[in-house]
Amino acid sequence: MPSYMYLCPTRLLTLSLFSLLLFVQAPAMHAQDADAIVSEAGADPQSAPASESKSAAQEATSTTDPKPATPAAVPDPSLPVEDKRIMGVLPNYRTAEMATVYTPITAGYKMKIALKDSFDYPLFFIGAGYALVYQAEDNHSEFGQGTKGYFHRLGTSYADQVIGNMFTEGFFPILFHEDPRYFRMNEGKVSKRVLYSLSRIFVTKTDKGNTSFNFAEVLGNGAASAIGLSYYPDSRNFGDYMENWGIQLFTDATSQVLKEFWPDMKRAWMKKHPKHDSSASAPVSSVN
Description:
By secondary structure, the chain is mainly α. It has nine helices and seven strands. The chain has one domain (3-20, 78-271). The chain has a three-stranded antiparallel sheet with strand order 4-6-7. Strand 6 (203-206) and strand 7 form a beta hairpin.
């Protein structure tokens, strides 16, 4: 059996285990977030009388103002708040809601997303996890074993993630005029949402808001895997190239599923901890 047919399932299982381990940290992270929200909300009752009198004064003056008031933009309470980190750890800088009116982003903002995702600290731990698997399997045996071999694998694994992010979220979205963000469904059957999130590695939006094949994701990861052949001297064959390409796509597909269901996972945790239930709705009114 070719090596790539054996290694791929092992690595896929490892990535899934890392996701579960990271989820263990979520309750502590969001307990702190909820406490902060509660402390902010606690100041509101003290300022309520002043705000009420101010509102009354505004109503009195509005009766003499012939111009109709412009309604303020109020966030949709049915939409979840975008956390900057999934499970309090994984970066979540490129998630948007499908239900909102589509607004394109600039080339500069695409590069900003790519840089944030590439050089945020959790990516280091993902690379470290892959390096452990490669070390245990003695993959890329020319790197050797021991500390030197591990750090060599760590460097190349981290490079795989950074190059893949820069191509799929920055360079190629600019080249193909595509939007690198993930647009969350937020509602519907679980099976439908899973299929939708997995399919986003092949389907995306253009800068005009149209649906298109995700050239940036597929070709970007393909280009990143090709570059990887330059620092994996024992993997310069078609089978290993396809394996690396597939792992890159799987990693991104897994992150899409986490982005889709993270608000549901967070709500489920909050329901099991009534202590913070009063803060569950507070973030909705404080969306920036």
